[in-house]
Specification:
alpha+beta, Jelly Rolls, nine-stranded antiparallel β-sheet, 3 helices, 19% helix
């Protein structure tokens, strides 16, 4: 397991990735968000912890440099080919991705702190889990709404305006 400074997030990540998924615990409402270029599905939420499944169905794709100021995150790749950058640095090499795609390399969970700016490009459609600890007593919604940076799509920007209009924190 990777080094995570937040012991609560580290414990939750380990428990979620090695345990069974309780499909009865999937939120019944407000669990799916269409950001235009990416679809989010909350598959687990309890208290300040949440797991979102992100599916990026089109390639090439791109998401802008941003951070989630109220969320400590571990990303866990599931399928496809994308390149992730954290604070301007490429996280893994194209050789790592090639080995991962051919099942020669295991998925390595990637920690993204609330202060880390990150961006990415999708070479083919891809999917990943975002394992989250929501901080500062902010109720969990979607990390696509708790976003500091330029929007990655017109749909995302429209969702921000809607949430700002109804007084939700993004």
């Amino acid at each position: 397991m990777i080094q995570i400074d937040n012991p609560e997030l580290a414990q939750f990540t380990k428990r979620f990735l090695t345990g069974r998924i309780n499909w009865w615990a999937v939120p019944r409402a407000n669990a799916i968000t269409n950001f235009g270029n990416i679809i989010s599905f909350v598959i687990y939420r309890k208290d300040q912890f949440q797991v979102e499944l992100f599916i990026i169905p089109h390639a090439p794709s791109y998401f802008t440099s941003h951070r989630h100021p109220d969320v400590d995150v571990v990303e866990f790749g599931l399928s496809g080919y994308n390149m992730l950058y954290i604070n301007g640095k490429q996280v893994y090499s194209t050789d790592d991705i090639a080995q991962w795609l051919s099942d020669e390399l295991s998925t390595v969970p990637i920690h993204i702190a609330p202060t880390d700016y990150h961006s990415g490009t999708g070479i083919m459609p891809y999917a990943f889990l975002s394992i989250q600890h929501w901080l500062n007593k902010i109720p969990p919604t979607s990390v696509g709404l708790n976003w500091e940076g330029e929007p990655s799509s017109m749909e995302q920007e429209a969702l921000w305006l809607l949430h700002d209009a109804v007084g939700s924190i993004r």
